[in-house]
Amino acid sequence: MVTNLSTSQVLDDVADSFSVPLTRAPVGEINVAQQMMIEGAVVGGEGNGGVILPALHHTRDAPLAAALILQALIDVDGPPSVAAARWPSYAIVKEKIGFPREALPQAYEI
After folding, report:
1. Residues 14 and 3: beta-carbon distance below 8 Å
2. Residue range 38-62: average pLDDT?
3. Nearest to 98 by CA among 86, 90, 107, 89
4. Helix, strand, or coil here: 4?
5. Of 30-34, 37-41, 76-80, which range is least confident?
6. Residue 110 has pLDDT above 70, yes or no
7. Phi/psi-derived region of residue 105, left when phi > 0, alpha when psi is between -120 and 50, beta in every other case
8. Do residues 43 and 33 touch, judged by C-beta distance below 8 A?
9. How many domains does the chain have?
10. Scanning 3, 27, 52, 84, which has its CA 20 to 30 A from the CA of 61?
11. Is this prediction's pTM over 0.90?
């Protein structure tokens, strides 16, 4: 399973519960898709709800995400709150910081 660096930690919990490795790629659909191809991952996506299943194609697919959510609701035989209650809730704080563009290559080396 591959997701991006800014997706909720709950995916770590999901991956752990199924004994599946989780890799985090830089933000961006292309980064997630490329990492999936490198690792041969069977599922990936980003925190915005886009799901990537390479068995179909290597791009986000909102209707697929909706179908998977509906399937999860069928599986738990209850409302979304029942499905969500299986996992812990985490807070994500995102802030913008200034960073000089010319320092970017050096930052990637760290």
Report:
1. no
2. 90
3. 107
4. strand
5. 76-80
6. no
7. alpha
8. no
9. 1
10. 84
11. no
- The CATH number linked to 89 is 3.40.120.10
Separation CA 49–CA 13 (nearest Å): 17
Instruction: Name the β-bridge partners of 3.
Output: 24
Query: What HEC string does 13-78 produce?
Result: HHHHHCCCCCEEECCCHHHHHHHHHHHCCCCEECCCCCEECCCCCCCCCHHHHHHHHHHHHHHHCC
CA-CA distance, 90 to 81, in Å (whole number)?
Answer: 15
Domain with 101, as residue range(s), is 2-109
* CA torsion through residues 13, 3, 53, 69, sign: positive
